[in-house]
Each structure stands twice: as structure tokens, then as C-alpha cells.
């Protein structure tokens, strides 16, 4: 190989807007390098000005005001290792197929986010007793399919989640300023929720006294269980328990002998307590070795299993994770019209020669 390092690349799903998957099968670090962090956009990238170095807070507050970038940097900060997963990750696996970006397994990445607790910032302005939800507006905007006017990307959080001390306004990733493509100068980070909640290029925060009904809240990022009806719909929020087999890669050809099977597992409710593997299509299960990051409540767990294979043939390998709340990956996914939250048992097939 002439001593040259082989490096992976992002996998492009679309260019306008830019949506690219992380090379998740080849990432073994707790902190995804920014160049390998997946990219998910609804619109083209915003054109930033000096105006975007201020965050405006308004609505049901006692003292509406602006916070400048330097002021936020001067406030007490905290750092958290948090994975961000697109709600459409693994969408390609749904049967029947659903419309939307056909993400495989790489719409997830993890790193160290540093910023200021949103709770601390809101204490500076004082919430009205009428406050019910908090709306976050990014600097990115454009035309949503079926709409004629430009709209910003905008989402809300209930008070309880917004005021959790680990919901932060981040300005660093892996100890460096946020990259432009991942939200510079400010990005909301909402641990345990799918990444649509972690609004990029955060520019405005508005406290409201009712339920927010913007299109990215009540149309997109909603589970629709029925193909031709909105009946029984409910919002996308907490991450499902999930796992990925990173190595070997699906449809690999292996030699007879000993192989390490490895991957990651994550959840939005509690922590990963078990990772099991099956080599007989779910009839029996074997426990993998879990490795969790100490003192990091939100980080994914890595796992590994030493597999000794003595016979040639084709093998299906399944993985399923279980979390401390008792949730376990199901054999079949919860099908929904927009293809969110896929977390069925992860499967690969390999051939041994």
C-alpha cells in the first residue's frame, strides 16, 4: 500500500440540500471526527452574517433580550458525549418501502458537545407563568414541498425537556468551534431525542403559551402508522433502542477461523444493558461483551463478540440491544408512513469459504 493510509468517505444521498451518511462501519472512536459526521439538511446552507452571532429570546418571558456569542462563551459551560441520530436512519429497510431520504445505517454520529445549559440562559430572562413550549428557529430556510413561501427550520420542545440541565446551546464540537455545516455558531443539543430536535444555526428562541404547530412539528417528524390515514399519529421524540453491526460488513466473504464481530448500541431511555447475537435467525441468542463510556449517560455502547466458525457456508448474523427500561429491539419494525425510528433487529449475511 506504499504506506498510504486508507480513509473512508461520507456517502452522498443528495446534494441540494446536502445529505450525507457517516462511514459508520469504519469508525471505532467514541468521538466521530467532524469530517465523518453525517450531514442532514432540509434546505441549502444559510448565508451567515454578524446578526447570526446573536440569539434572540422573546415571547412569554419577563425580560426579552439578545445574547451575543461572546457573552454565551463567558457563561459556565458543560461538555457531554452525545450521539445524534436522524429520525430516518435505516429508512431503506422498511417494507413496504416509504418515501424520503433512503438512509442506510450512517445517519448517526457521536461526539463531545460543549455549551451552556439552556436552563441557565432562560433563567436570565425569566419565564412567564403562561409558558408552555419553547420554539427554536435556525438560520436555514427555504421552500418546503407543497408550500409557496420560504420558511425557516423551526421546532419546539416542551418545558420539561427544554429545562433539563443537559439540554444545551453548543458552540464547540470535540473541543473546537462548531463547523459551519454542523451549525456554527450555535446549535441546540437535545440528548436522548432524535436529531431533528437539535436545531442548527440557532438564531431565535421564542417562549409560547400554547402548542407549536409548525410544519416540522405537526407534519414532518410524526409517526403515521397507517398508509392512507392520519389516525393514531404521534410525534417523534425519544430515540428507540437500536444497534449496528459494524464489522464484518454485510455480504463479506470470510475465511474459516476466528473473527471479531463488533458494533455499537444506543438508546434514548436509560442505558444499554445487553447486546445479543444470533446465528440461527433468532432461534437462540448469545451475549456480546459491552463497553460503555464511564460517566457519560448518553453515549452509545460499543460491543464485541469472538466468533469461531468451522464450516463453510452462508451465515446470517443478527444483533439486538436491550436497555435499562426493558426495551429491546423487535424482530419486525414499527412501520410508519414517513419511515421514522427504524429499530428492528440488525441483520447481516456473510459467506465463509
From TrEMBL:
<dbReference type="InterPro" id="IPR008335">
    <property type="entry name" value="Mopterin_OxRdtase_euk"/>
</dbReference>
<keyword id="KW-0500">Molybdenum</keyword>
<dbReference type="InterPro" id="IPR036374">
    <property type="entry name" value="OxRdtase_Mopterin-bd_sf"/>
</dbReference>
<dbReference type="GO" id="GO:0006790">
    <property type="term" value="P:sulfur compound metabolic process"/>
</dbReference>
<dbReference type="Pfam" id="PF03404">
    <property type="entry name" value="Mo-co_dimer"/>
</dbReference>
<protein>
    <recommendedName>
        <fullName>Sulfite oxidase</fullName>
    </recommendedName>
</protein>
<dbReference type="GO" id="GO:0030151">
    <property type="term" value="F:molybdenum ion binding"/>
</dbReference>
<dbReference type="InterPro" id="IPR014756">
    <property type="entry name" value="Ig_E-set"/>
</dbReference>
<dbReference type="InterPro" id="IPR000572">
    <property type="entry name" value="OxRdtase_Mopterin-bd_dom"/>
</dbReference>
<feature type="domain" description="Moybdenum cofactor oxidoreductase dimerisation">
    <location>
        <begin position="237"/>
        <end position="352"/>
    </location>
</feature>
<keyword id="KW-0560">Oxidoreductase</keyword>
<keyword id="KW-0479">Metal-binding</keyword>
<dbReference type="InterPro" id="IPR005066">
    <property type="entry name" value="MoCF_OxRdtse_dimer"/>
</dbReference>
<dbReference type="GO" id="GO:0008482">
    <property type="term" value="F:sulfite oxidase activity"/>
</dbReference>
<dbReference type="Pfam" id="PF00174">
    <property type="entry name" value="Oxidored_molyb"/>
</dbReference>
<dbReference type="GO" id="GO:0020037">
    <property type="term" value="F:heme binding"/>
</dbReference>
<dbReference type="GO" id="GO:0043546">
    <property type="term" value="F:molybdopterin cofactor binding"/>
</dbReference>
<feature type="domain" description="Oxidoreductase molybdopterin-binding">
    <location>
        <begin position="43"/>
        <end position="214"/>
    </location>
</feature>
